[in-house]
Amino acid sequence: MVWLLVAFPALGAALLLTWGKESDRFGHLIATAASAASFVWGVVLFVRLLGRDHDDRTVTDTLFTWISTGDFHVEMSFVYDPLAALFVLLITGVGTLIHVYSIGYMEHDERRRRFFAFLNLFVAAMLVLVLAGDYLVLFLGWEGVGLASYLLIGFWQHKPTAAAAAKKAFVVNRVGDIGMALAIMLMFKEFGTTEIAAVGDSVAGTAASTITALGLLLLLGACGKSAQVPLQSWLLDAMEGPTPVSALIHAATMVTAGVYLVVRSNAIFDASETARTAVVVVGLVTLIAGAIIGCAKDDIKKALAGSTMSQIGYMMLAAGLGPAGYAFAIFHLVTHGFFKANMFLGAGSVMHAMDDDVNMRHYGALRTALPVTFATFGLGYLAIIGFPGFSGFFSKDKIIEAALAHNVWIGLATVLGAGITAFYMTRLMAMTFAGQKRWKDEVHPHESPRVMTVPLMVLAAASVLGGILLLGDWITDWLEPVVGHTEHEHVVILGAEWPPIAVSALVTVVVAVGVALAWFTYGRREVAGETPEKVSFLTRFARNDLYGDTVNEWVAVRPTMTLARGIARFDQHGFHRAITGAVGLIGEGASSMRAWQNGFVRSYALGVFVGALALTLALLVVIWR
Amino acid sequence: MITLLAAVPVVGALLVTLLPRGTRSQQLLARHVALGVSLVALAVALVAAARFDVGSGGYQMVEEHSWIEPLGAFYSVGLNGIGLTLVLLTVVLTPVVILAAYRDELPGNRSANSYVAWMLVLEGLAILVFTATDAFLFYVAFEATLVPIYFLIGSYGGPGRQKAAVTFLLYNLLGGLLMLAAIVGLYVVSSDAGEASYRLADLASIPMDETTERLLFLGFMAAFAVKAPLWPFHTWLPEAAASATPATSVLMVSVIDKVGTFGMIRWGLELFPGAADWASPTIMALAVVSIVYGALAAIGSTDIRRLVAYTSVSHFGFIILGIFAFTQTSTTGSVLYMFNHGLSTAALFLVTGIMISRRGSAEISAFGGVQKIAPVMSGVLLVAGLSSLSLPGLAPFVSEFLVLAGTFTVNVPLAVVATLGIVLAAVYVLVLYQRTMTGPLTDQAKVVTDLTAREVAALSPLVVVIVGLGLFPQPLLDLVNPAVAVVLGGLP
């Protein structure tokens, strides 16, 4: 009965998309109920799975044969195992909270029903993605979430920027999809199957180069969906979507699908060191790039988006470490889902109070006007910077520890990343909630309604407490049947072995430095009300998203568009003219006859001529024989 | 059964032409009758499908009568899974098209009677083409389809229709003449081998020397490559589509152009397996060029109708690629692709046709922000577009992926280049949607009104089937599989 998880939100979406205007009044309730039902069912299934033996925690639910022709055979099957179970809870849990929040946030939007239909569509597709038992079914969910993301980024279609951002997100993701599609084709060619478990079993005994190719192709797909370098550019633009969308899709769930893909394909990555290294490099580069971008943005959502890139970089890097990191990647993915959804919704609450202004330079001193949002946001803040005891402290620490054990330099880069994270998050907190008020007099900040603040409180609690998943190494034990397990490796720096507590201390010190730097720059000093123009090259570099768009523009967009326009023009005027030239002659001859013959007669004559010609030729042959 | 199926629309066409013409209400009656006739044809086809033995790959419901004895030509028809799939496409699309075209404004007060009658004639001829198992009968029906399309474009199209119709005719006649030469050649070969016969079964068993086989194959392929259309024989299609009514474009691109790819399988592969094998690398390469070239030309188009026509050039590239990869997966995928492309392109041509007729211009730049005033229209355009870009969950994804996966097993480089098409498809679809539907509503686009109930009724069957076949394609695959296995079994 795993399929029920998908059925609730899918049905909700179908209902809301086809029902008429009369459902405007209660459509949002149907959608929220559908998501909640899925969550409740997810909890039931989770408890049942807990009751099973450690090694017997995989439930397969085969619905029907999707595609079968020749050797190509794909079952529409769902596999519910410990990894999928965690995702189901995260997606439906956070998803339901965001549905509730959106009831308030989207209250005055005339297309609210449509918005909830798309949210339900997203939840259904995301569940298909994580429950899929076959890579092609996974791809179905993968593209489904891409569609939902497209529809929701561009939800306010009348804004040209939103429409452009939606298209960009879809197209960039499609570049990643080339990797996914080719990986699935390669599996079919090499293994004769695309079923995830069967592919995993086939890895042993396959040429190393094939496995590496598979790993790299899957990584390309993961880069698209998870906004990793070099396919990162869409995520910042995606902030054009309504803020609940940014929280659910572009922070907590969909963008982590790339990490899920790598972890789910652990058999492939375990077998190829090259592919793993590529994952680590991608994660590391994105981790730093995202953090730098986060430091320079004045738009609160874009600062958070940079942060999301960076945090997913952490997860990706952990996943690239192989069995030593898979579980920690998922652990950080879950805690990040809590605290980032919390902070995005908090940002939405702030925007709600500030008449949809997103510029932090127009904020300041909001801690008194928005006490609940300040408190919940603050807890999320402490979690993301890794304040000891908060969820992010444990999850990030584990990744840094594993990275240090893997390679000191990579590890130190992740420590540095933690420091930059502390810097940009403190900057964001200070500019928004601390200091003097910089908003205009006609703005009257007010706390959001209960329907919005309650989800914030729940997520804030989860951001604080998420660390308990690590208690007694529960999460590594839980995921072990899926991703395997390795003994803890030791961190050795400068020839000396560092105990975990020392690593934590090091990270905490670096984080403290980041906090202090930001506090002295933005908290203690007056923040300018407008974005300063005269800034260093580095700041400009960061503000322009490290010129990712410029590179895309010159490497891909312009050449393609120029070529496309050239071909279209050539095809119509050059290629075709050679033939139409001849046609033109006939056409002129024909039109001169128009004086004594109307168009019909001429047409018939031509038709008769054709028929006669064919028959004469055929008869000639017969006679000639 | 098959004769009845082909005869219903033709007789119906005669009936419609005999009906009084002139007043609006009389013309409306003609349209009602035509719609009724096409629904009867649909019903007959469904009965035939129900009687069809899905497990068998051979020809069923065979009818055979001697026809032109000196030539060895028979009136011989039969259905296999491939033919039935395309017959079903034809009978599903014809009523949709007739319904969608109820309000088409015809130039110069021309009567609607002949307009819909030509559509019915085309339907009957298409059924004959998809069921003919005699080469001569096939040829006659194949060439005969030119006449209705010529009139549908030349008499009822928009500005430039005369020139477009002549372009269409010249291209197709040129291809057709080469096929005629091959038909004549087949007679020579067949009578040399004993008794002259144009029956598929007889022809397939004649041993041919290599050169003859290749020449005859190329003769057939010339006609099919123009029809399909394969790059570089495609330039007639954008011209014709830009001047035809949407209904004509649908019948031309969704149904009749399939005769090209269908013919490649039935006549190219079944009659000349050795030559098909010999030519396959070249044809596959041209198919991949079609995919990329067509997609780029679509991206660069400023006219909506040309854009849609170029997307079809790209899609036909996929179909041809899959056929000539000669794997069960890819060739079955291609047959399914023919069906799915028929649906998605029909939806695309019809909804853009409605947009264009409301606005009075086919330029993309003439639109902007239309979703604000026509949300249903924009939704249908998006679904049609998403199916054109083969979004998983919609029907065309299954067929496109089967083509790619099958091709990948025999030719990795070509499959990789073809896969680039999925990004280009996203660009041409989403750019079209973005420029016409999103953004602030422009003054000039304010005249566009949303879909009427009749238009929704015409388009919704397409949407339902596109979604349904995306998740449940297996019934059609079961239909196609055995026939493809038979065809591929004959290859060297």
Q: What's the helix and strand layout?
A:
The complex is a heterodimer of chains A (625) and B (492).
Chain A: H1 3-18, H2 27-50, E1 59-69, E2 72-80, H3 82-105, H4 112-131, H5 135-153, H6 160-191, H7 196-202, H8 208-225, H9 233-237, H10 243-252, H11 257-264, H12 266-270, H13 273-296, H14 300-320, H15 326-353, H16 366-369, H17 371-385, H18 391-406, H19 408-433, H20 450-465, H21 474-483, E3 491-493, E4 496-498, H22 500-523, H23 537-543, H24 548-592, H25 599-624
Antiparallel strand pairs in A: 1-2, 3-4
Helix pairs in contact in A: 1-2, 1-4, 2-3, 2-4, 3-4, 3-10, 3-15, 3-20, 4-5, 5-6, 5-10, 6-8, 8-11, 8-13, 10-15, 11-14, 13-14, 13-19, 13-23, 14-15, 14-18, 14-19, 15-17, 15-18, 15-20, 15-21, 17-19, 17-20, 18-19, 19-22
Chain B: H1 2-18, H2 24-51, E1 60-68, E2 73-79, H3 81-100, H4 112-131, H5 135-144, H6 146-156, H7 161-192, H8 200-204, H9 210-227, H10 236-243, H11 246-256, H12 258-271, H13 273-300, H14 304-324, H15 328-359, H16 375-388, H17 395-410, H18 412-437, H19 453-471, H20 474-489
Helix pairs in contact in B: 1-2, 1-4, 2-3, 2-4, 3-4, 3-11, 3-15, 3-19, 3-20, 4-5, 4-6, 4-11, 5-7, 6-7, 7-9, 7-10, 9-12, 9-13, 10-14, 11-15, 12-13, 13-14, 13-18, 14-15, 14-17, 14-18, 15-16, 15-17, 15-19, 15-20, 16-18, 17-18, 17-19
